């Protein structure tokens, strides 16, 4: 598309297409609320210029470099840093040209849509990106990045972001969030509490992490009570920096609600590093229930993101470390896995637990039936590999009939790629508008209701669910 | 929809839409054959007026109250009875207003379609239901219910029901069915044989149930041979009241074909209440094969409905008991699970085993390939949470190419909500008409064939499969 | 369809339909490259006339006779041979009439599309097939089969087949391929290396097969090193007859990368026939990794086709033997199963491993994410029961967004039914054209790109992936 098609992602039948466009026109300019993501708070704190086009679009985006790698382009040639921080290729232009030569690989992918949208809408580039235009695009983007209006805060404001959440570990001192808070800029950047390093006995340096947690909290976290207290203290600290949620990304959805004695015993083994894999899994599962109980007190929304088998390739993990595109989804079961936690807190109307999945087979079979009855449960949007036109459509088609719209929580961009944020929210608003228009034109929803639901899905539900 | 859209659920492209409407027009008024459901035979026996709108539409319909509960409305406020039979809220109008205030929660759900259809078609109400119209709707429906033409038998006739099946336990004396048979009304209400209380060693009071079974059958059911004989006797008794099928709702699709000695041993343990969960599961699985063997003799159609994890919430089960919307589907495997039974009886052309699923992932992968080769197997329609426009579409798209149309058995409403019966059959007829029209317009089926298949799906196949 | 609809399988909305037709018109006449299938090389070698219509269309096609069997037609009446080779019904016309009487069973199935296409395009028959036309069709096809232009080689040329692969065991002497090579006909028929009889310890006569393998290779295959060497020698021999791939059809996707000592120990047990099922499975899994290592040396493409539970019915297997329509797909997990092999060779850019599945739930969840990052992996097309309009559409919708188009390998017909080859490729080309047109009309792909991708999917990618 030299030009972005203004009707993109709308059904092709004219009467549905025109209604989709009408609905979309009422939500396209709503503020962006991004309650879950992985942008770097340092960007907003220091507000420094982004280094170069390759480091903006290629090197940090696992969607982009994994596809190039899948067709034989080495991560070294793309300047992706090794686990030890070294980078082989550092010439942004070389990386950019390699990206351009292989741009056809992205045909039909959401990355292609996000990139086209960013080139056009963020940098005002026209014409198609490819080998012939690589240098022109590189030069233009480089020039832009040097200008003040392309600094992180300026883009944040221009993107119409009302609130964005980053994700930090309890061991993070939140210095960048402090710096933002103490600055004269009033962009609303909040943190979220992601405790993997201190709730996963198999996490590198678990015992030291617990020491550090205690030090930060000013309590002895090596006892069970002190450990739970340290979580409460850090959660309270995160709330000072806007946190309204915690975030939990285990390999499975397992929860446990263990008797205190068993929990204590597992915690002590975890500190000694003597947990079996099964025991480590049980401990992680139990901590979800503990976190839910803390949420009942402090009101943080509990997000559960299970199902990714992280760092699937042993040699790549050794060479390049985490988050290099080798996290592969696996089958995830929720019904038995969530029962212990749901028996403990699932009927609490004042608790919000948001479930995500990478296993679409659970939408209609498990997640919608669960969220359609338990007051504490809500469904997160189509996530990660499913953050796409087809993925979002399947999400609505497979969850709405059983869970309705009001047990869902709007859209999350969940991204590290700052410039893709408007593009991703745009895709979500288009897909939902198309879905609603289809319901109207097939006699399943009245037109005025569709416009109201569109506002809910694009704006109201996310603020309500995340208490933003 | 203030008015029901006459084209609802049809594809939007005009040429497909018009053909869908043409096909639908030839099936919409066919008699309703409802071979599987849970309406109360007492309604037809006593033919008493339905008490009030809330007790007709809200309190008995788990689809309705589970959705309200999921958004924080308590079951007490909806008048849902506790396990001990007590009800907190008994004012129908209060319940009705609460329902109306939350009616937006049903947007995009099949419940919404069924309710709109019933309000309009059964009670002649126009305008949209909601807080503003709650009282008017309540008063109008109440007035109607007081009239003779809204008694169960009158509605049965008006709905064009040719045959309806209810579901009873072998321990049921079928008194209501006797009363119907002895009445001057000639509505065809038949029973179905659902033996859970006497084939599931984990069912409350299993041993006493077996005693009772023997007493009803006039045989000693505490011996293996007497037990099987008691089943045969009760099945014969059910057949006197029109039964043409048995119905089996286990948590899994497991079947077994055990040597007699093992079956006897498990039965004796079951009577003593000493079965392990694994042994109880094996016994249930073996009984499916025994039931299939009995079907070879007495001709009852065997229905297998696996996959629901019943009563998922322990606290809700304790407080409110069974069937309160907490039955959650789980992953269900059929291929290995059904093998013992299929090796025993699967190639019998005179046996009919109807398979249902709550796990759509098995449609194309397992169920269609199995039903597409085993003469004894047929596929039940999209069921329970999948008894919806999208669910039915997926069923056809994922089963037809491998199993064809003639290994399916038409539609089941499977409902407790009497007034929703015409609405549900209407949805099924519309979705099938749309599917057939799509096949024609995409060159996959000739037009005259589509009209013939539409008759088969709406009427002929269900009578044939269920021997009605 | 008395006439084949020229727009069949295209979306119905006119603007998408016309673009689909435009795209299709540029690929419909491209040569057929069939890199994976099960036609009999003897046909091309001897070029004898096909015996009769029933033996051409009914008796050898498990899609056809399994559907008839599922509705009570016995395999004996269809002339399907017993395991001992005997056939009950041998009168082709009787079989054909039985087929015609039940032709309505195929409504909505791909078999119906393939048959209609073959009747029309291969035999020039007009009018609809059925009981009334059975004899006329039979006579016409019989007359055709007697003519030289309906001999295998003539049809091969007429179908526009550029290359076709058959599948042989390492124990096959490839005599038919020799005969083809030595003939004056220049049709390109290549073999593929399918080692099940000599890599599966549970295969009938495994030990004798290993003896035979050694004899054919001229090495002692009863030692581990000799066994691997024998594979290398036979693979080289197959390459002389055009083989560019090996093919592996295990029940699961399990791979192993065992220490030499363990592999040797399993091999010795396998020879003694003392492997437990678990050990046999581990050995099969290890051999996939060994085959991948050999591929690194000799360049053969490794095809993995897991997930079929073969010969599901014990009584049918006993009476009729293998490949009688009783192979049922089962749930298949790839993520953990492939890890050992992928850790060993997954990042090799010069290796090609093509993954197929019968479990569509793995498309978006596992296969696309894996193929979208591992350079050695490519996705095979929608396969077997999913080689259909809906199946192919789901394949594109569920894999493209994460794996793109260029990690897929075009279409395989995988068939035993020679006359269905053009029909199957036509369906694939139509479905892909429709998918691409939809992407264009929904603003996801530029029009010129769609035409280019269409060429890739219909012709270029298959040649590239299979090195043809």
Automatic annotation (TrEMBL), chains A, B, C:
Any one GO MF annotation of this record: glucuronate isomerase activity
Upper taxonomic lineage: Bacteria, Pseudomonadati, Pseudomonadota, Alphaproteobacteria, Rhodobacterales
Record family assignment: Belongs to the metallo-dependent hydrolases superfamily. Uronate isomerase family.
Protein source organism: Aliiruegeria lutimaris
EC code(s) of this entry: 5.3.1.12
Gene of this entry: uxaC
Keywords: Isomerase
Family annotation (SUPFAM superfamilies): Metallo-dependent hydrolases
HAMAP family registered for this protein in UniProt: UxaC (MF_00675)
Name of the protein described by the UniProt record: Uronate isomerase
Keyword Isomerase: yes
Catalytic EC class: isomerase
GO biological process, one term: D-glucuronate catabolic process
Pathway: Carbohydrate metabolism; pentose and glucuronate interconversion
């Amino acid at each position: 598309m030299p030009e972005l098609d203004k009707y993109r992602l709308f059904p092709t039948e004219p009467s549905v297409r025109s209604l989709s466009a009408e609905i979309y026109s009422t939500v396209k300019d709503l503020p962006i609320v991004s309650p879950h993501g992985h942008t770097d708070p340092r960007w907003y704190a220091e507000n420094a210029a982004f280094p170069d086009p390759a480091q903006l679009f290629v090197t940090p985006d696992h969607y982009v470099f994994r596809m190039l790698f899948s067709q034989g382009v080495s991560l070294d040639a793309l300047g992706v840093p090794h686990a030890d921080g070294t980078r082989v290729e550092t010439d942004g232009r070389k990386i950019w040209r390699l990206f351009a030569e292989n741009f056809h690989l992205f045909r039909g992918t959401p990355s292609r849509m996000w990139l086209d949208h960013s080139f056009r809408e963020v940098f005002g580039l026209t014409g198609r990106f490819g080998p012939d235009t690589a240098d022109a695009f590189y030069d233009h983007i480089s020039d832009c990045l040097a200008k003040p209006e392309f600094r992180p805060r300026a883009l944040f404001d221009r993107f119409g972001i009302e609130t964005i959440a980053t994700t930090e570990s309890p061991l993070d001192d939140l210095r960048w969030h402090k710096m933002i808070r103490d600055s004269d800029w009033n962009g609303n950047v909040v943190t979220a509490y992601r405790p993997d390093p201190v709730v996963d006995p198999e996490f590198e340096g678990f015992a030291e992490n617990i020491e550090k947690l205690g030090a930060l909290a000013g309590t002895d976290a090596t006892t069970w009570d002190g450990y739970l207290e340290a979580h409460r203290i850090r959660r309270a600290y995160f709330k000072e920096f806007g946190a309204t949620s915690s975030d939990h990304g285990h390999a499975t959805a397992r929860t446990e609600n263990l008797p205190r004695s068993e929990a204590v015993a597992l915690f002590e083994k975890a500190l000694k590093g003597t947990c079996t894999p099964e025991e480590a899994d049980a401990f992680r599962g139990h901590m979800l229930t503990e976190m839910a109980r803390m949420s009942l007190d402090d009101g943080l929304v509990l997000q559960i993101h299970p199902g990714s088998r992280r760092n699937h390739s042993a040699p790549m993990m050794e060479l390049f470390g985490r988050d290099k595109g080798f996290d592969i989804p696996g089958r995830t079961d929720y019904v038995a896995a969530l029962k212990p936690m749901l028996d403990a807190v699932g009927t609490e109307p004042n608790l919000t637990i948001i479930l995500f999945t990478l296993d679409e087979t659970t939408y209609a079979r498990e997640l919608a039936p669960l969220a359609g009855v338990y007051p504490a449960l809500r469904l997160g949007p189509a996530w990660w590999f499913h953050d796409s036109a087809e993925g979002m459509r399947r999400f609505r088609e497979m969850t709405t009939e059983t869970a309705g719209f009001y047990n869902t929580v709007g859209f999350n961009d969940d991204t590290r790629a700052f410039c893709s944020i408007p593009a991703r929210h745009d895709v979500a608003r288009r897909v939902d508008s198309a879905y609603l228009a289809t319901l109207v034109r097939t006699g399943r929803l009245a037109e005025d209701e569709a416009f109201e639901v569109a506002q809910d899905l694009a704006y109201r539900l996310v603020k309500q669910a995340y208490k933003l």
